[in-house]
Automatic annotation (TrEMBL):
Species of provenance: Streptomyces capoamus
Domain Core-binding (CB): residue ranges: 74-176
Pfam families: Phage_integrase (PF00589)
Lineage top rank: taxon: Bacteria
PANTHER family: PHAGE INTEGRASE-RELATED, PROPHAGE INTEGRASE INTD-RELATED
Protein name: Integrase
Domain Tyr recombinase, first and last residues per copy: 202-401
Length: 417
């Protein structure tokens, strides 16, 4: 129950403090001041009537002040769905993934009014504090109150939180740029997100040459072995490599063009579950140089095929599916290699990471690796693989010493020590 305390001022007048514990035992102590006992008693009754919470619409020190409403305001999730529906330049799988994030993760965002009252989030009322609360809720997850071992919502990784936050920021920005505007400021700007380098990074697995050879030696199917060798030897994404066609090979130049990738069809769309579409990004459409040994393998696989035929197919001449390759070819080979001493358990996508590690070990610059992998931005390449460039520290020191030595030798230039 709330209580009232009378405090005397130096001038002899009195103030009346209404004090209570927000939400009851275990909550924070709250206080509101009044100049007369009648007003204090009325407010005390309101606090008690609302289960020791600030009365809805009450702002500390000001009283009942309703938040201004904005014409055209709507629930945050509804606005987000409209935004995603109107996006252009994305495939239906990406649109479906965005909507899943909206429904599963944006729906938990709530707005806390200045009075402390929690109300549903709308595109106009959500604040920076609400976004920070949302980020913390994703970090913590939510346990099942009836089963301490179960989760209602699992803890999210820093990368997942950052991806969702980026999508939300774009959605809020669209509300700022709407006509008429629904907001004046992007509440996502300045949010402190979890660091993606906290803890031990277990997402990427890099194989040494002999470690990959152990796995490859366990793959008996020549078609699967060719595909695995291609993935680790070019760094292509699974969807790009398995979509390559005979016409993509330039025998004269010793290159292969990446012009398409497998896409997952939307549920209920009818027809095949996968279809050939454009690569992941604009820069993913690229030309990849290959070795003579790789060209020899391609010539073998091109024999007797038409220009539109796939380069990498199963033993039965069908297109590869990730799940099929994973279960029937990759996992058995990895498990066999582990039984013989392999200390790692790589995924198929780790062949792409491994390819990068091998290039960096050979002193290939990151911009060249960015182009080979088809990363849209050099930032992506640096963020994922920059820590592997430590092997170049000796070369960097030598280069700096050479430059500084040349500067010292130049007339009129004092050497800095």
């Amino acid at each position: 129950m709330a209580s009232i305390r009378e405090r005397k001022r130096k001038d002899g007048s009195a103030i009346y403090q209404v004090r209570w514990v927000q939400g009851g035992r275990g909550g924070t102590e709250e206080c509101e001041k009044f100049g007369d006992p009648v007003a204090a008693e009325e407010f005390k009754k309101l606090v008690d009537a609302h289960s020791q919470q600030w009365p809805p619409g009450w702002i500390k020190g000001r009283g009942f002040v309703e938040e201004q409403t904005v014409d055209g305001d709507m629930p945050l999730v509804e606005w987000a769905h409209r935004y995603v529906d109107r996006l252009t330049g994305i495939d239906e799988r990406t649109r479906r993934d965005y909507k899943r994030d909206v429904d599963n993760h944006f729906a938990i965002i709530q707005h806390t009014q200045p009075s402390g009252r929690v109300v549903p989030a709308t595109i106009a009322n959500v604040t920076a504090a609400d976004i920070q609360d949302w980020v913390r809720a994703q970090e913590a997850g939510e346990r099942d109150p009836d089963n301490a071992e179960a989760w209602l919502r699992r803890q999210a990784s820093p990368k997942s939180i950052a991806n969702r936050h980026g999508l939300l920021s774009a959605i809020v920005q669209a509300a700022i740029e709407a006509d008429p505007p629904l907001r004046s400021k992007n509440c996502c700007l300045g949010t402190r997100l979890p660091r993606t380098d906290d803890g031990i990074d277990e997402e990427m697995c890099f194989l040494e040459h002999d470690e990959y050879a152990r796995i490859a030696s366990e793959i008996e199917d020549v078609h699967a072995r060719d595909l695995a060798d291609w993935l680790v030897g070019t760094g292509m994404r699974w969807g790009e490599a398995t979509a390559l066609q005979v016409r993509d090979v330039n025998l004269a130049q010793g290159t292969v063009g990446v012009h398409r990738s497998w896409k997952r069809a939307a549920p209920g769309a009818g027809g095949p579950a996968y279809f050939l579409g454009p690569p992941k990004t604009r820069k993913a459409r690229r030309i990849v140089a290959v070795t003579e040994a790789q060209m020899e393998m391609l010539r073998r696989r091109m024999a007797g095929k038409r220009p539109e035929d796939l380069l990498f197919e199963t033993r039965l001449g069908k297109s590869w599916r990730h799940d099929n390759f994973w279960r029937r070819r990759w996992v058995p080979a990895v498990e066999a290699a582990i039984a013989k001493g392999l200390p790692k358990r790589p995924r198929i996508h780790d062949l792409r990471h491994t390819h990068v590690a091998w290039l960096i070990a050979q002193r290939i610059p990151l911009p060249a690796i960015q182009a080979r992998l088809g990363h849209e931005s050099i930032t992506t390449t640096v963020d994922r693989y920059g820590h592997l460039v430590q092997a170049l520290d000796g070369e960097i020191r030598a280069a700096v010493e050479t430059v500084m030595g040349a500067s010292a030798a130049a007339p009129g230039i004092r050497r800095v020590v």
